[in-house]
From TrEMBL:
<dbReference type="Pfam" id="PF23317">
    <property type="entry name" value="YVC1_C"/>
</dbReference>
<feature type="transmembrane region" description="Helical">
    <location>
        <begin position="290"/>
        <end position="310"/>
    </location>
</feature>
<dbReference type="InterPro" id="IPR052971">
    <property type="entry name" value="TRP_calcium_channel"/>
</dbReference>
<keyword id="KW-1133">Transmembrane helix</keyword>
<feature type="transmembrane region" description="Helical">
    <location>
        <begin position="346"/>
        <end position="370"/>
    </location>
</feature>
<feature type="region of interest" description="Disordered">
    <location>
        <begin position="147"/>
        <end position="185"/>
    </location>
</feature>
<feature type="compositionally biased region" description="Basic and acidic residues">
    <location>
        <begin position="147"/>
        <end position="160"/>
    </location>
</feature>
<keyword id="KW-0472">Membrane</keyword>
<feature type="transmembrane region" description="Helical">
    <location>
        <begin position="390"/>
        <end position="413"/>
    </location>
</feature>
<dbReference type="InterPro" id="IPR056336">
    <property type="entry name" value="YVC1_C"/>
</dbReference>
<feature type="transmembrane region" description="Helical">
    <location>
        <begin position="425"/>
        <end position="447"/>
    </location>
</feature>
<feature type="region of interest" description="Disordered">
    <location>
        <begin position="1"/>
        <end position="31"/>
    </location>
</feature>
<keyword id="KW-0812">Transmembrane</keyword>
<feature type="region of interest" description="Disordered">
    <location>
        <begin position="615"/>
        <end position="674"/>
    </location>
</feature>
<feature type="transmembrane region" description="Helical">
    <location>
        <begin position="316"/>
        <end position="334"/>
    </location>
</feature>
<protein>
    <recommendedName>
        <fullName>Calcium channel YVC1-like C-terminal transmembrane domain-containing protein</fullName>
    </recommendedName>
</protein>
<feature type="compositionally biased region" description="Polar residues">
    <location>
        <begin position="630"/>
        <end position="640"/>
    </location>
</feature>
Length: 712
């Protein structure tokens, strides 16, 4: 579909389209020449070579960002923003950030290189228009380009093998060289994370060889991951905290950017801007904001059933309310299992609330087992234990209902602080336990005539938590000689040294996290949005409706093939059961004014029209090739090298004939006619390029010094 060609908005570092400056390039080695058709592996190889040369000394993040230590990075950003149109450039930078961050040897240097990759990634986005930033951040790494067409044809030929849980990307090929890639795509959860960790450690090691064997490709586990997902697992909190990235994540949260525009058998998952005139209303079920809202309603109902069962506490039979509670437990368990399968442990383990979910499922399962066994054998004690175990559920269910508060900046900042303080507290308690165990052993043996182990343990616990008078009252009873000095020493250690040290350590942990409070909050927020939106499952049933799909379709899958009719039946069941929810969403959006908004870009600027350059002949043929993401070609940039012909600006007569295809956002825009001012600017830029070309040629030929050149 045709797409309006856009140029980047001018920033303080970008005064218009011009040829990259040749000065200072030799200091940091040759800048990477990244072609549009380079694979993800090739891009990483070229970037890693330059990063290794540009950052050869340990430097902090601020030093790389503000001092001369980051001069090479500034040259790289300027070079990439003007010459690079490869859609995997941001993915590659963040993958390298993860690689250097996980390296064990020479931590100072590798941390500096990891920070350098993160700085280049977010600075590059600031040189792009907002829509281009969306395309780069949401670009999913495909299979190697040379196999892309074959994979697409093979996927179409396997239509009878696709079911509702199959990711809508190529997952299997008939040719044997892609076995590793196929296995990578088919794996999920902890296996996928393990493969990523293994590949990260050898991401740049295999680049020394020229062997292109697919079996040894360390980038294969990154297939189907976009830049934001890589940033989340790579702990790139500064990147995720940038305004341009947060606008994208907020757009996903609000449903302005969607991955599914309709529910049909042949739909394809890809990022696009929401347009209520063309999108299926049922696609709003996948919006993270509405998913979170229904999750809160589900947990509130869950909590009401929980309290009702505890208040009723029927020891003789299972009541109707308790049956509903079991249904809610089953729906919750199946939903969490589906979430873990879809998102995998990559994101599931990073969300602190998922730990609460796992504990809730464990307690619910234990309650159900004790309850059934107790009723079966008529054991009143087991039934009492079952309700006592169920009472523990409130410790996790009540905070889980209130997890909506974590999406606010205030509460979202406190939760990471409490998590870090909890980690440090557990570490410190190891030292406390060692000291406590030593004194407990001594006091128990010395005062064995009057105190047993249990009584002594309780007394020392009271002393540790502040009841010092207990120790002074019993020290003479323990032993007249050894009791007083040992008890005074224990009270001093516990009340002054240990408690003071723990307070100071927790205060330091809080200060350390609160210093980066915004980054921590935005990271938690980003992880939740990505976890809720990156599923490859087309039909997502809200609990408890997911049990209907489980009961109806799971047994049929054992006997019937998972063809298009099977998938269509799931879609119809989803529409029938979720029609009231979609109606409520439509009413909300109508009241909030979202349905009446005429901006088809959902608040994302397409970029100002400016000078558009035709690429030089050396790149024109490559840019005409079909690629998995041709939208990145809409950037008005060109690859320039000394000695190449200067890029020719388009005149007003040339522009109407130019059309670019956008498969990433699936929008269709008309190309704007340039104004007279834009044509004059283009002519001025052409003259500046010619002048720069003369200077470069004179330098390459060792001509006279620049100061002696007459430009008149």
């Amino acid at each position: 579909m045709p797409l309006r060609v856009k140029s980047r908005p001018l920033s303080q570092h970008d005064n218009g389209p011009r040829t990259p400056s040749p000065f200072g390039r030799g200091t940091f080695g040759d800048l990477p020449d990244i072609e549009h058709d380079d694979s993800f592996r090739e891009v990483i190889k070229k970037l890693s070579i330059f990063i290794s040369e540009a950052v050869d000394l340990p430097s902090s993040f601020e030093q790389l960002r503000t001092t001369s230590a980051g001069d090479g990075l500034r040259h790289l950003v300027d070079h990439l923003s003007r010459t690079c149109t490869n859609p995997a450039i941001v993915n590659s930078l963040l993958a390298l950030k993860w690689h250097y961050g996980e390296a064990d040897e020479d931590r100072g240097l590798n941390d500096a290189r990891a920070n350098a990759c993160e700085i280049v990634a977010w600075r590059l986005l600031t040189h792009l228009s907002e829509r281009e930033a969306v395309e780069y951040c949401l670009y999913e790494i495909p299979v190697d380009d040379k196999h892309a067409d074959h994979a697409h044809q093979d996927e179409e030929s396997r239509g009878d093998e696709v079911d509702e849980s199959t990711p809508l990307v190529a997952q299997a090929w008939s040719s044997s060289p892609q076995k590793t890639v196929r296995r990578t795509l088919e794996r999920n959860g902890s296996t996928r994370r393990y493969q990523l960790l293994q590949s990260i450690s050898r991401l740049t090691q295999s680049f020394a060889d020229d062997d292109d064997d697919e079996e040894e490709d360390p980038t294969a586990p990154f297939v189907t991951l976009n830049a934001l997902e890589i940033a989340a697992v790579a702990d790139a909190k500064r990147f995720l905290g940038q305004n341009v990235v947060q606008k994208i994540i907020t757009g996903i949260w609000n449903g302005d950017i969607i991955f599914w525009d309709n529910l049909s058998v042949n739909t394809v998952k890809k990022p696009r801007f929401y347009n209520h005139k063309t999108a299926d209303p049922f696609s709003r079920l996948r919006v993270p904001k509405y998913l979170k809202s229904f999750e809160v309603i589900f947990f509130a109902t869950f909590l009401c059933l929980y309290y009702a069962v505890l208040v009723e506490r029927n020891p003789y039979q299972i009541s109707t309310i308790e049956i509903l509670l079991y249904i809610w437990f089953a729906a919750f368990f199946y939903d969490e299992l589906s979430e873990w399968i879809d998102a995998g442990s990559i994101f599931y383990a990073t969300d602190v609330w998922n730990i609460f979910d796992v504990v809730m499922m464990t307690i619910g399962l234990l309650f159900g087992v004790l309850r059934v066994v107790g009723l079966t054998y008529g054991d009143a004690r087991l039934i009492d234990y079952a309700f006592d175990v169920l009472a523990l559920e409130a410790l996790f269910m009540v905070p889980r209902v209130c997890s909506i508060l974590s999406l606010s900046p205030y509460w979202g900042t406190l939760i990471p602080c409490l998590r870090e303080m909890g980690k440090d507290f557990l570490k410190f308690m190891v030292l406390v336990f060692i000291v406590y165990l030593g004194f407990l052993t001594t006091f128990t043996l010395v005062g064995r005539d009057k105190f047993d182990l249990g009584r002594m343990a309780m007394a020392l616990t009271k002393i540790f938590f502040g009841s010092s008078y207990v120790g002074f009252d019993m020290m003479n009873d323990i032993d007249p000689i050894f009791g007083p000095p040992l008890m005074i020493l224990f009270v001093t250690l516990s009340s002054i040294l240990l408690m003071g040290s723990m307070t100071g350590m927790l205060s330091n942990s809080f200060s350390r996290v609160i210093t980066h409070a915004r980054e921590e909050y935005l990271y938690v927020y980003s992880v939740y949005v990505l976890e809720a939106s990156t599923s490859n499952r087309l039909t997502h049933f809200y609990p408890p409706f997911n049990l209907l799909a489980l009961v109806i379709f799971r047994p049929l899958r054992l006997f019937l093939p998972s063809d298009d009719k099977f998938r269509y039946a799931r879609i119809m069941l989803l529409k029938v059961t979720h029609l009231p929810i979609v109606g409520a969403i439509m009413i909300y959006e109508l009241v909030s004014g979202k349905l009446g908004r005429s901006d088809e870009y959902a608040g994302f600027k397409a970029g100002r029209s400016g000078t558009i350059f035709v690429p030089n002949s050396s790149n024109s043929s490559a840019r005409k090739k079909k690629s998995s993401r041709p939208t990145m070609q809409t950037r008005a940039s060109t690859s320039y090298r000394p000695g190449d012909a200067s890029p020719r600006p388009l005149s007003a007569a040339d522009v109407p004939g130019l059309r670019r295809r956008n498969s990433g956002m699936a929008d269709e825009d008309a190309l704007e006619q340039p104004s007279d001012v834009e044509v004059r600017i283009a002519d001025l830029a052409r003259k500046i390029d010619r002048l720069t070309d003369i200077v470069v040629q004179m330098q390459s030929q060792n001509a006279q010094p620049l100061g002696d050149v007459s430009l008149g």
